[in-house]
Amino acid sequence: MNTDIIKGNWKQLTGRIKQQWGELTDNDLTAAEGSREYLAGKIQERYGIARDAAMDQVRDFEKRIDH
């Protein structure tokens, strides 16, 4: 999904993101504001996974919402 599209639809996507990664807070999502890198960093922090694994999860999520 295009980064501009993500930023434009961020508020609508936050609900789906919270379903996927329930440990993320509203503050995390507000601070991310559509930033793939920030989101991956927060996923890494909250779930204790490697940065690459977090980025893979974000990419997979983007693919699912793009369909």
Automatic annotation (TrEMBL):
Q: Which domain of life is it from?
A: Bacteria
Q: Which InterPro entries match?
A: CsbD (IPR008462), UPF0337_stress_rsp (IPR050423), YjbJ (IPR026042), YjbJ_sf (IPR036629)
SUPFAM superfamilies registered for this protein in UniProt: Hypothetical protein YjbJ
Q: Where is the CsbD-like domain?
A: 4-54
Q: Which family does it belong to?
A: Belongs to the UPF0337 (CsbD) family.
Name recorded for this polypeptide: CsbD family protein
Higher taxonomy: Bacteria, Pseudomonadati, Pseudomonadota, Gammaproteobacteria, Lysobacterales
